[in-house]
Specification:
6-stranded mixed beta sheet, 434 Repressor (Amino-terminal Domain), alpha/beta, 6 strands, Endonuclease, Chain A, 304 residues, 11% strand
Length: 304
């Protein structure tokens, strides 16, 4: 079973289980007591943080008064298909909120991201990713860097290989993201060339938001929006702050507001011949012709 399928099935199962409990007019505490579980176990199951075994699911459905054979079989199938969530082997590296982000990312049919500081993980080259991780944490071990890069490249392969068929990817990058020399000129030149390859790929849209637009709707920071192929799954919003804390919501008023914000950013961003623009920027950066750098050199010359 594919990674997106496993993620989506767990998301569907948690939605169905919450719906079944509320239809039975039971609280989480009441259900936990009936099942002789700790309340945290049910909370984690309904949050999609952990799976549920078939042996646990059968009596849970009975407690909810579900007797329809077809519905029971459907929920059991969801439980079987959702046992292996994507990237759980990295749970020692990432918080449960980040792993949930990875699961939604894997399951989404449409992904929209605005980034103002660094490139989205799935678009990063290995060298760029290593430079970012070292900058985040000077004391990080080589083993953790290797495994984090492994996870990042796996996400890249999973997302970009399905672009144009299973999903559509939309990225808006602040100009600062593509101008910042992460890892040095050589690393950034290679990163921009790789980004240009992604931009030319069907199903992937990359836009650059120029610094010249001034204040804009994304000025408060990056965000991600996920849409799913099934109406059973609501759109999801993720916002991560500088400490790595993640806020998520599937409230329609919030996801709708951020979708409108993304569309406003699209209207402001450069969208034509992005692959050519990125390659040109990389070549100029490699040649040391970055505008800001030249300005600083001129200032130093004047003060000498």
């Amino acid at each position: 079973m594919s990674v997106p399928s496993a993620a989506l099935q767990r998301l569907r199962l948690r939605t169905e289980l919450r719906r079944a409990r509320t239809s039975a007019n039971l609280t989480q505490r009441e259900v936990a007591k009936m099942m002789e579980w700790s309340p945290s176990k049910l909370i984690r199951i309904e949050a999609g943080e952990v799976g549920i075994s078939i042996n646990d699911l059968r009596p849970l459905l009975a407690a909810y008064g579900i007797t329809d054979r077809r519905r029971i079989d459907g929920l059991l199938d969801l439980a079987r298909g959702s046992r292996k969530m994507p990237y759980t082997e990295y749970r020692d590296l990432y918080s449960k909120e980040v792993l949930q982000f990875f699961a939604l990312e894997a399951a989404a049919s449409i992904i929209r991201q605005y980034n103002s500081l660094v490139l989205p993980g799935p678009l990063q080259t290995e060298e760029y990713a290593r430079a970012i991780m070292r900058a985040y944490d000077k004391g990080i071990s080589d083993d953790k860097v290797d495994r984090a890069v492994e996870a990042r490249l796996a996400r890249q392969e999973q997302l970009t290989s399905g672009a144009g068929s299973d999903r559509e990817l939309f990225f808006i990058l602040d100009e600062a993201v593509v101008r910042r020399q992460v890892g040095g000129r050589g690393v950034m030149h290679a990163q921009l060339d790789r980004l240009a390859e992604f931009a030319a790929q069907p199903g992937i849209t990359i836009q650059i938001l120029p610094l010249s637009v001034g204040a804009h709707p994304g000025i408060m920071g990056p965000f991600s929006l996920f849409e799913f192929e099934t109406d059973e799954m609501p759109d999801s919003l993720f916002i991560e702050n500088s400490r790595g804390d993640t806020y998520s919501s599937n409230a329609p008023e919030e996801t709708g507001r951020y979708l409108e914000r993304f569309w406003e950013l699209e209207d402001l961003a450069v969208k034509d011949d992005i692959d050519t623009l990125l390659r040109t920027l990389g070549a100029r950066m490699d040649a040391g012709s970055d505008d800001l750098e030249r300005l600083l050199h001129e200032r130093d010359d004047e003060s000498a």
